[in-house]
Amino acid sequence: MAAPVVEVGNGSGNGSPGLLPEDALFDKYEIGKLLGCGAFAKVYHGRNVSTGQSVAIKVVSKQKIVKGGLMGHVKREIAIMRRLHHPHVLNLFEVLATKTKIFFVMEFAKGGELFTRIAKGRFSEDLSRRYFQQLISAVGYCHSRGVFHRDLKPENLLLDENWDLKVSDFGLSAVKDQIRPDGLLHTLCGTPAYVAPEILAKKGYDGAKVDVWSCGVVLYVLQAGYLPFNDPNLMVMYRKIYKGEFRFPKWTSPDLRRFLSRLLEPNPDSRITVDEILHDPWFRKGYKEIELHWEEFDPKPESDKDKCLNAFHIISFSTGFDLSRLLNDPVELVHQERLVSAEEPERIIEKIEEVARSENVTVRKSEEWGVTLVGQNGNFVVDVEINRLTEELVVVEIKRREMDAGSSQQIWKDKLRPKLNDLVYKPDLPDGVQ
């Protein structure tokens, strides 16, 4: 599980996040230079201090997320990246948080954006095919997991140290749960030059077919060095997209022309599918299928005693790093709190029992690492459950059910809760951490 993460600050204007290495990340990550920034996030190079592994750390402001109405995007991006494990999909290691920021700790793509490479000149047909094969392998996998990217473009395709492709940025992705009863998605999204004609029609669309269209635009850009649909006037460009009007460069081979025509077919019902792509002669040249062992990606049941929670389970584990308003239903969290402790679970249970007895509150064992506290008149019930966080830390989840709000709040907040404060883990925070 993730240790809490420092806030990187505003930086000094030269790409530095404003922290010395010894100040960073609770001895877990060092934060390095700024790699890029957008309206809602900054991405830094980082290093795992225990393994030396390079990582990318995407820092998102919670305030900007709330103001920009992007809560759903962040929740969806976390949920989506949790379910994707593929050699050509950027890996998300963990999600951390402070009071003001969320940190996505991700695989570091040393080669940068594919866009940067293609901006220097078009690729050969063989190299274009190689990257397109990697892209389709990743996209087909995402579709099999119920995820549709909806914003595929060279800026969202990264390269690792071996110059292999990594699909990134799932902030605009959709999942099957968002499909309406008509079997289609309806949210308008994507980048204008890569958007499929059926999205422009505003009548609903198939997420898989939209991704195939965007893959076709990417392939065209790789081999041509420029966009198939482009015009200074946005409406003129949209008309070209809607009609599928584009020209091939003179160097495009007949087989590639045929293949691209099937990818950039404006009628989604006639457009080639991922399965058909995988069997196309142009695509299959030199193609090596990636073996995926699905059992590695499915969660295994764990015993309660051995279970360690990861960052996704405890993303709101304490008030100091509270994301509950962002990532959960507020109604369910009115009477819920979590705290982290370095005490052994047995010692925590003993302390709770001791405190409860001093206030004439009944204690009932609910499970090995759990108890229920019941008020004398049954006016409140507190369920306490303990789960191991790391070898040293546990998370204590407290759920309070009130029948008489005034009376139970006084008993819990004024008498019981303060006596548990010495159980709370208080790390030594570096300067500037919130």
TrEMBL record:
What does this protein need as cofactor?
Answer: Mn(2+)
Per UniProt, where does ATP bind? 58
Q: Which InterPro entries match?
A: Kinase-like_dom_sf (IPR011009), NAF/FISL_domain (IPR018451), NAF_dom (IPR004041), Prot_kinase_dom (IPR000719), Protein_kinase_ATP_BS (IPR017441), Ser/Thr_kinase_AS (IPR008271)
Looking up CDD domains in the UniProt record yields: CIPK_C
Q: Which residues form the Protein kinase domain?
A: 29-283
Question: Which keywords describe this protein according to UniProt?
Answer: ATP-binding, Kinase, Manganese, Nucleotide-binding, Serine/threonine-protein kinase, Transferase
Show the Pfam families listed in the entry.
NAF (PF03822), Pkinase (PF00069)
- Per UniProt, what is one GO molecular function of this protein? ATP binding
Q: What class of enzyme is it?
A: transferase
Residue ranges annotated for the NAF domain, each copy included: 304-328
**Which reactions appear under catalytic activity for this entry?**
L-threonyl-[protein] + ATP = O-phospho-L-threonyl-[protein] + ADP + H(+); L-seryl-[protein] + ATP = O-phospho-L-seryl-[protein] + ADP + H(+)
Give GO BP annotations, semicolon-separated. signal transduction
Q: Which family does it belong to?
A: Belongs to the protein kinase superfamily. CAMK Ser/Thr protein kinase family. SNF1 subfamily.
What's the name of the protein? non-specific serine/threonine protein kinase
Name its species.
Answer: Rubroshorea leprosula
